[in-house]
Amino acid sequence: MAPTQQDMPPPLLSVLETTLVRPSPTAGAAPPESSLPLTFFDVLWLTSPPVERVFFYRLAADADVATILSNLKTSLSRALHAYYPLAGHLRLKPGTADRYELYYQPGDGVTFTVAEYCDDADVEELASDEPKKVAKIAPLAPTLPEGGAVLALQATVLHGGLAIGMAVHHAACDGASSTRFLHAWAAAGTGADAPPPPVIDRTLIKDPRSRLYDFFVKAPTADQMECVKMSDDQLFATLTLSKEDIQRVKDVVAGEAGRRGAAPPRCSSLVATFGFIWSCYQRAKDEESNRGDRRTYLCFPIDHRSRMKPPVPDEYLGNCVGAAMHAAPEDQLAVAGAGGLFVACMAVAAAIEEAVGGVRSPETIESWIERFKEAAVAGTGMLTVAGSPRFRVYEVDLGFGRPAKVDIVSVARTGAMAVAEGRSSGGGMEVGISLPSVGNLACRGSKSASSMPLRFFTIEQVIH
Q1: What does the DSSP assignment read for 15-66?
Q2: Which H helix or E strand runs over 209?
Q3: How many CA atoms lie within 13 A of 43 on its CB side?
Q4: How do residues 273-291 score in pLDDT, each as one tens digit?
Q5: What does each C-alpha distance from 146 to 94, 149, 152, 436 come to in angstroms?
Q6: How many other CB atoms are there within 10 angstroms of residue 425's CB atom?
Q7: pLDDT digit string (tens) for 48-74?
Q8: What is the residue-wise DSSP string for 377-407?
Q9: Which residues of the chain have pLDDT under 70?
Q10: Torsion angle of alpha carbons 7, 12, 13, 14, nearest 10°?
């Protein structure tokens, strides 16, 4: 029997306004009509779900919210002048069967929604690191409008603050580009010096005779390779690793390498963080799932702008990321103490070393898909990564201070771990993980682990 209206929970959001914000004109004219062909880097993401970020901001009790919202729309229009392709939409190029493009014409714009949060939760609760229901924060990110839109934004008034939600289609641009846009929006809102404008030139991605495009447009798309069913009780939690925590992981890995008489891996802060989380993640699985030496996979993005021949500018607007991937035996990753950390960090370091040379030839680029297929056939699962500490998301001040918290809420759907720089500017990192409430990142060996709420290992639990 279907639930009656009385049984339905009240909506979390009340939408107050939806407007279309267009790029601001220069000398009375809007940006010109343009068509950007998708490259092989872009087309892999053509049917993938959008990347959704939510920025939580605290507001003073006497903040003029109406003025803040008006200024957000004005500054957004200014930022879109340079980033006008993001106001366009994806489409199949007329007269072709499989050539896609990002098309903009004057009059196009970005949907900007203003909403009010109806739940009792305030900004402090929603922006906390503690496990919280994904259902409470997911509505703070907008839905991409139908028709091929690539960007949508939403401002939600909270008790004591404001949430700015962003949804962006990955086929339009990667995280480096979308967060550069956010910094441009912030500069337009605060009057700070504008960052360098985007480089809008898809010919910078070399693909002779469209070999790689033709290969990737027929390959399994990213959403087909990521299959995670979100449960009704899905939780999202954040672990902050301090600079000192990360150094302890590095020291443990170096000590274990010495004990084994092996050369230590190049254990950067990124390697230490990914290795720590990957080992924790594997240990958190039920013991029955760690079946001997079966290999499981970690995959994370690597920006190839500086590695292309010739190099692509940092400001390039589009996708220019490849996959760094490596496998490790499940049982070795899940081993308690320093052993699991060592195996995980060795694999992460090897993935980076291989990926750095991953754009040397069309053959090495095509092998990305084969690696994904290999992981899918193995059936042991693949932990992926979204975000980067290099995006500086905690510096996105839109005119009312730095964010109290930034979450990539779309990882609840993709099963990835979300990574960002630490809020304290002390050299740490944040990792967001989403799991069903019956799952956990608890200490392996606990008799009640399978029914405990999601929580993280501590450094001490991992290394001892």
Answers
A1: EEEEEEEPPPPBTTBPPPPEEEE--HHHHTTTTSPPEEEEEEEE--TT--HH
A2: none
A3: 24
A4: 999 999 988 887 755 455 5
A5: 19, 6, 11, 29
A6: 10
A7: 999 999 999 999 999 999 999 999 999
A8: HHTS-EEEEEE-GGG-GGG---SS---SEEE
A9: 1-10, 27, 220-230, 286-292, 358-360, 379, 437-464
A10: 50
